[in-house]
Amino acid sequence: MENNTREHFVAVQKNGDGDLTAFKTSGGRVLDYNQALNEVETGKIAGANVFKAKGGSLRIRGDADGDPSNNLDQLPIFE
């Protein structure tokens, strides 16, 4: 899939600890963390990647571009 045809994350939900729990895409879809993880892994979502955290769990992060203001954690909150 080409970058211009893939969705990207535009907003997030967080739990009480500030952990990301859900994502809203540019297409208006709401994905829980596991759905989002799968879509990032399969290349359906642009601007994010999956990495293995300490302890072996898979996590989503924004692609590194040197601009901390557009990290996934900085996206607007949606309800």
What this model shows, in words?
- The chain has 79 residues and is mainly beta.
- It has one domain.
- It is 11% helix and 37% strand.
- The strands form 2 sheets. The chain has a 4-stranded mixed sheet with strand order 3-2-1-4, with helices on one face. Strands 5-6 form a two-stranded antiparallel ribbon.
- It is globular, with a radius of gyration of 12 Å.
- The model has no long low-confidence stretch (mean pLDDT 93).
- This is DUF3892 domain-containing protein.
- It holds the Pfam family DUF3892.
- It comes from Paenibacillus polygoni.
Compute the number of strand runs.
Answer: 6
Give the H and E element order: EEEHEEE
The total number of structural domains is 1
The main pleated sheet reads as: 4 strands, mixed
Quote the distance from N terminus to C terminus.
29 Å
Gyration radius over CA: 12 Å
**Approximately how much beta-strand content do the residues carry?**
35-45%
Can you give the mean pLDDT? 93
Based on secondary structure, the structural category is mainly beta
Which range best describes the helical content: under 10%, 10-25%, 25-40%, 40-55%, 55-70% or over 70%? 10-25%
Name the poorly predicted regions: none
- For the biggest β-sheet, the strand order reads 3-2-1-4
Number of helices: 1
**What is the general shape?**
globular
